[in-house]
Specification:
With 228 residues, this protein is of the alpha/beta class. It folds into two domains: 117 residues, 2-Layer Sandwich (Ribulose 1,5 Bisphosphate Carboxylase/Oxygenase); 84 residues, Rossmann fold (3-Layer(aba) Sandwich), CATH 3.40.50. It has a four-stranded antiparallel beta sheet. Strands 4-3-5 form a three-stranded parallel beta sheet, with helices on both faces. Strands 2-6 form a two-stranded antiparallel sheet. Helix 3 links the parallel strand 3 and strand 4. The model has no long low-confidence stretch (mean pLDDT 92). One of its GO terms (molecular function) is structural constituent of ribosome. Binds directly to 23S rRNA. The L1 stalk is quite mobile in the ribosome, and is involved in E site tRNA release. InterPro entries: Ribosom_uL1_bac-type, Ribosomal_uL1, Ribosomal_uL1-like, Ribosomal_uL1/biogenesis, Ribosomal_uL1_3-a/b-sand, Ribosomal_uL1_CS.
């Protein structure tokens, strides 16, 4: 078992592992227990009462966080029809088949998000096994397969995040940075929990959101009180 640093021991001591903290207190505590010298990311995890093996219980989508993410995203736009629009919108990389080949042959991943127009999806499908595990495959549900390239790039630059259930029914997302004001992190939390509540599958009975926890990079986990 790895030895805990003095900083982490002090941070852990501030958190009552048996307590559910109201979100305001949880965010405040997350900021206080951040132990890195850099501006840590504040992250959130939702544990849901869903069975992702069933298609109708797989939750996936995207949302523009009102307070932003504090992270600049490099965008790759793959298109044959909207190249000028993509360049004007501020995308870092714009191209078509030649960039797909670069990903495949050169293991090129100098970007964070791919936006593709529909005519590119057949070509992109050929490297789905490369992009899928990295969470980079464009999808209409998250707005990354679209003819409205400008809107897609604008939203990503403003703080758009994707969310989806993993095999255990968890959703992980960014809330922002430790340097954010508490109000900004609260706005992002409210936006996320609202969209997750609205996505509740009809097949789910009883408790839907089982647990919520907030943490920072290398910081302790803080359990959140779930309010109706």
């Amino acid at each position: 078992m790895p030895k805990l640093s003095k900083k982490l021991k002090v941070a852990n001591a501030k958190v009552d592992k048996t307590k559910l903290y109201p979100i305001n207190d949880a965010i405040k505590l997350a900021k206080e227990t951040s132990i890195t010298k850099f501006d840590s990311t504040v992250e959130i995890a939702f544990n849901l009462n869903v069975d992702p093996r069933h298609a109708d219980q797989q939750i996936r989508g995207a949302i523009v966080l009102p307070g932003g993410t504090g992270k600049s995203q490099k965008v790759l736009v793959l298109t044959k029809t909207k190249a000028k629009e993509a360049q004007e919108s501020g995308a870092e990389f714009v191209g078509a088949e030649e960039l797909i080949q670069k990903i495949q042959k050169d293991n090129w991943f100098d970007f964070d998000v791919i936006v593709a127009t529909p005519e590119m999806m057949a070509e992109l499908g050929k490297i789905g096994k490369i992009l899928g595990p990295k969470g980079l495959m464009p999808n209409p549900k998250t707005g990354t397969v679209t003819v409205d390239v400008k809107k897609a790039v604008d939203e990503i630059k403003k703080g758009k995040v994707e969310y989806r259930t993993d095999k255990e029914g968890n959703i992980h997302s960014i809330l922002g940075k430790v340097s954010f004001k508490e109000e900004e992190l609260l706005k992002n939390y409210q936006a996320l929990i609202d969209v997750i509540k609205k996505a509740k599958p009809a097949a789910v009975k009883g408790t839907y959101i089982k647990n919520i926890s907030v943490t920072t990079t290398m910081g302790p986990g803080i359990k959140v009180l779930i309010e109706n």
